[in-house]
## 1
Amino acid sequence: MATCRVSVLSLTFCTSFDVRVRSDNLNTSFTGNRSEPVARSARHRLFPRVASRRSRVRAVQATYDYDLVIIGAGVGGHGAALHARSRGLKTAVLTGGDAGGTCVNRGCVPSKALLAAAGKVRELRTVERLQAMGISVRGQVDYDRQAVSNHANSLASRVRGNLVQSLRGLGVDVLDARGALVAPQKVELLKPRERTGERVVTARDVVIATGSVPAVPPGIQVDGKTVFTSDDALKLEWVPEWIAIIGSGYIGLEFSDVYTALGSEVTFIEAAPKLMPSFDAEISRYAERLLISPRPVDAYTGVLATKVVPGIPGQKPVHIELVNAETKAPVEVLQVDAALVATGRRPYTDGLGLEKLGVRLNKGFVPVDDHMRVLDETGAPIEHLYCIGDANGKLMLAHAASAQGISVVEHIAGNTSYRLRMECIPAACFTHPEISMVGFTEEQARAIAERERFELGKALGHFRANSKALAENHAEGIAKVLFRKDTGELLGMHIIGMHAADLIHEAANAMQTGIPVHKLAFAVHTHPTLSEICDEAFKAAAGMAAH
Ligand SMILES: *[C@@H]1O[C@H](CO)[C@@H](O)[C@H](O)[C@H]1NC(C)=O
């Protein structure tokens, strides 16, 4: 729930990263040669001049019910709809009975509420840290589980309400239906949970934004009470004494942060040979030091949970069978109070009717090109049909979905110069302290430097050298910037420490706009702020002293 991502999970993040790299390669090989000229000529026929956008919209409204129909009202569909309105498009959004989608209802938003409450509990129970600042807490610091849960749920409904209101306020038709494609520009409206269509609407362009659901590996039985996914964990129906968390990606780490703050012991079960496999290695070593070792957390790595059988709270434990991930030899049987399955997410693309349009789903993911156009089985784009967000699997983060939605609307509006740069999209894990990143890990950047024969630069900033972090008595962590030594181009930044999720945008914006690190080094930062940790790293990159 890293950003909704919850962002996201190690597995997903990792997978989508691979997918992105692969599809980039694909696109350079065929978008350039085949689909691009087709698209361009089609657009030229349809819209002779960009300047005549208004008249075009009017002309189109005569033929279609809408300029744009968006299937799905999560953060991706919402972002697409807002931008469509600012581009003057007549727009409808189909909520499928789930306005707000995963992020708002079962992801980033409610998880941030749990993390905020749990973080305060941890802070108030960390007596030494408080004493060092002259504060003592008398009596026990307690929390009311139901009230914490209510905080998360009421936040979700408030954000959901705001989202629907913002759509309506901008003149978007919000339809409480699911959508199925009967043709590329025809969407049948279905009542949530019913199979029969009410009516068919036509649209010049259609965007699929149906998102994803938690993935549960085979052999794991989910009962929603003792064995559950993030969907149920967010309800915080109880706080188990001992919980196994299967998967040490973003979701697993965030829930470990919540549960250990509220008094649980955690056992991670990770299939990769080390914890947090998708993170930059240096950052995951810091994370191990800050988030794992000082807490009641242990871990099995290189093992798979092949069988998980639910128990009965307070009576019968959850039964977990572990095997070696390589050899499949039995390792151990665990009996714990609860198990959280945080092994990634799978696309929610059933029943969209895509097969009829000649689309071959890839493990449920909708294949798309760089403009998010849906590809048919020959790899050619289907005109006027797009897919954004988790459903295409490029990068399973809420804000990535929204950014893809904006890029689709630009494309529809005839702006071919705009291409979303996926490698500049930041991500965060909202543990205490937070972890954030943009661009490549150091390992990936080294491989690229070697392949493309440039020298990789690396520079650090430290929380322990920062006045604000010291004042807060939270002076743990680092910021690491990776760049090309010849051009100063940023290749990535990784931060672990207090408010890392907010600090990453300086680097993300610089990457997005192409500002080299030696220019960033001259940008002035307010003193004293945490942002000076980035300043220290940028200055170090340019060979300047910050202290
Ligand atoms: C196209 O997108 C770019 C962003 O890449 C934007 O700056 C520009 O204003 C857009 N062009 C038009 C004609 O809207």
## 2
Amino acid sequence: MGFSTDAIHAGQIPDPTTGAIMTPVYQTSTYVQDELGKHKGYEYARTHNLTRAALEKNVATLEKGKFGFAFGSGMAATSALAVFFKTGYHVIVSDNVYGGTFRYFDKVVKNWGVKFSWVDTTNPQNVKDAITPETKMIFIETPTNPILNISDIEAIGKIAKNAGAMLVVDNTFMSPYLQSPLTLGADIVLHSATKYLGGHSDVVLGMLLTSSEEIAERLAFMQNSSGMIPGPWDSWLVLRSTKTLALRMRAHCENAQKIAEFLDSHPKVEKVFYPGLESHPQHELAKKQMRGFGGMVTLEMGSVENAKKFLDNVKIFALAESLGGVESLISHPVSMTHASVPKEERLKFGLTDGIVRLSVGVEDLEDLIEDLENALSNV
Ligand SMILES: *Cc1c(COP(=O)(O)O)cnc(C)c1O
């Protein structure tokens, strides 16, 4: 099936009781059993919830995987990876990952005696060089937040396979519409469904997807034993949103490309980071492993003062953390999303004080450009 057909139908069947075309919100904690030892496959809602199961099947299909697991947030999904960690294990992570991912690995998991190497994964050789006999996992984010560095999933997948390590790819920025890491050698795909999968800035949810039965078994165990599940309403909201994922992503890409080009030629903007620009250092790789360049555009304003003037003068772009919703957002990563990353760490991957990040929404392009142009005239 094509992507949109799957997005609208996968994992969903008309409700057997009424024929309702939409999967109901099964707002229940328990299920009545027919007799002792005989039930309908549902016993307790932490373990089984049909609304959540429909979402898991739906996104697994979109990611070209077999199994999906939903969690209470993207970070809960990241936390569930702990089921694979033991004292002494070594994990290689992109040096420019989501701030919360860095914080969880560095401030929580490190205390258990798990070792981490923070590596510039845009060069696969760096990953290869960091491998030790204890390396059990390679965790990459591509494109990264907010610099939009791109790592070669296929090349790193091969390195992981040779080392006997699993490859986890945070696919939040691309969504399954634009990038399919499982088909390029990833073992697990991670999503903050709070972003593009949810798409309307009204829900916090996370997901892990895989094609491996062995990995799925352990994730199912972790999901149930840790209890880090999302509620049925939140699962339903994301399930409703994936139906329009293709439409939204096409609109995000179209607007973002035009805005990146506009900013690139604007004298007040020092530099624009967008995979769809030929000036992007991994533009060729982006064309190869992505089906579009996404809705995130990052720019360098030269100083925190310039950044502030720009941020304070936009009207349609709302000053807020998060991304991936239909409405355009603007943020200052150094003081917002990446406040927990030490200065010397962030400067290593180019996250300077003048960096501003746009999550380009699906409003009318002319309005967005006018808003940016007006704000830049105040800088
Ligand atoms: C937001 C985000 C996360 C964390 O997800 P939450 O739903 O906020 O817990 C992880 N990775 C990336 C790339 C994100 O943007």
## 3
Amino acid sequence: MNSQDRYICQHAFENDAGHHGAVTPPVYQTSIFTFPDLETFSRAQMKERQHFIYSRGLNPGVQLVERKLAALERGEACKAFGSGMGAIAATLFSLLRQGDHVLRINQTYGPTVELLDQLGAYGVEHDGISGTADIEAALRPSTRIIYVESPSSLLMELADLEAIAQLARARGIITVIDNTWATPLFQKPLEHGFDLVIHSLSKYIGGHSDVVGGAVIGSAEMIDRLFAIGHQLLGAALAPQNAALVLRGLRTLPLRMSEHQRNALRVVDFLAEQPQVLEVLHPSLAVGSAADWAQKQLDGHSGLLSLHIQQPTYHRIVSFIDALRLFRIGVSWGGYESLVVSPMRPDGSGQPLIRLAIGLEDIDDILADLTRGLTALNH
Ligand SMILES: *Cc1c(COP(=O)(O)O)cnc(C)c1O
């Protein structure tokens, strides 16, 4: 793990002298900030993204989180949001116009697809391909955004970020990536030429399953625009208390990510050897060109993975999941706790796979629990 990143998570941009040496910055639980004279107020209003005026715009704790995230992604600027979907909605609304097309690469987070479907009412079209498909052939003259998930958060697919960025730049297309799976510690898409990076802070960055938040990182120019249109007008602001929770999460992000990685790699090795398991999906197992992309782009592997069991009926998926005691059934991921879900539904619809979020518990406890699930498949 990069020592510069560790410093950014823990110490960078802190100003304890400004608040009596307090190591934890105070939470500015205020909606408004007042000014000594009208001139100062008016000048602040001309640069709303940089000044504390109203907490729908900016708040000191939120700004600290934004500075750290921008630095971690090696971007010029960051805007934080009240949720990952707030960040995604702001990005799409501020960049898209009637007649535009969005090309999605790899399986896109479900609510993002639903939002793009909604944008159909405003004349925006979208479709999706896999990262291994011929991307150039899927572009249209009206393509305005290429929206990527790599690794994606259910099938763990990869895409060639540098090739996509080059292709897009030559055509004036904006590249956006949802980097939630990898966190800025394990992947820095701006360094591969991407324009905007989105995170759900509700996952590893918050890290304790007690906060919902989002962020977008990019050039100052793009973030200014996103702020003016997507943030100020759609209003999905990160609350001061929630920013404090995200900040606390950032302090230990490097430590937690190494441990998530260590546990996940052990689980991947273990599952790959089990006769009841047909296939494990995790970027550490990528083969062919995907393995080259992983090598080039990923500095580590997070703890989210999926598996296909033999004869994946709904009944068997239920048997596996309901036999687990340590793993809890729930959406999301990124906290200390191991979680399990399946997108498969009782009527047989949905993908017949099991998704595991490997937490920070003792690895022997995790493997013993998975053995319970696998044993249940034998009955
Ligand atoms: C959770 C998630 C989101 C949405 O973030 P919220 O904070 O829940 O709104 C977007 N993308 C991915 C990959 C996610 O896992």
## 4
Amino acid sequence: MKIPILLSAALLLLLLPGVPAAFSSQTPIKILVTNSVTPSPDRTYSTYVVYRGILIGGMRRLQMSNKGFKFTYKEDANYGPSLQSVNGLVRSPKRRTYWQLLVQTTSDKTIRPNVGIGCYIPNANDTIILKYSTY
Ligand code: B12
Ligand SMILES: *[C@@H]1O[C@H](CO)[C@@H](O)[C@H](O)[C@H]1NC(C)=O
């Protein structure tokens, strides 16, 4: 008798409003790669993160899908993954260049997250902008 009760509890959970999203779904995002230092064509890719998943998960998924997107990062002891290169273009401390992380939200606001790719949790239909920039 215990198993059927558990099963019906699980079914009930799935039927509760709001709950299915936590089980299923993909949160679609776009990734725009752009260069503000040396003019070069932008590239846009589509990928997704899992429910409440972190950005780097979607970036890894995109990289593995072989759509021409690749990236490397270094692990910072305090802040986690720090983006080093995108599509072969490497940041240079000497030239004071880095990969800035920006997010264009569905309300068309562009924000500069105060966390990196290992901490940022994208929202559905966010356009993540990886912008080669100087500081
Ligand atoms: C200077 C600075 C930068 C410089 C670092 C280059 C340099 N050589 O100066 C630049 C402009 C590149 C930078 C970039 C970013 N930064 Co910054 N940065 C700082 C700042 C003001 C000082 C760091 C420092 O020099 N510490 C002293 C040295 C001696 O210690 P250190 O451990 O060697 O410092 C290194 C790390 O801090 C690392 N670093 C800097 N920022 C970041 C961000 C992330 C996510 C990681 C993993 C590492 C990292 O670079 C430093 C130099 O090598 C701090 C705030 C603060 N007051 O501490 C924010 C700070 C560390 N940065 C922050 C953020 C969010 C970013 C960005 C993600 C911003 C963005 N949206 O693009 C990007 C990183 C993107 C990426 N490529 O992954 C946050 C991190 C919070 C968090 N929990 O993730 C902080 C705390 C500021 C904030 N907004 O609150 N940053
Ligand atoms: C995201 O975009 C898809 C497809 O255009 C749409 O069906 C969905 O409602 C959007 N979600 C949000 C939260 O904007």
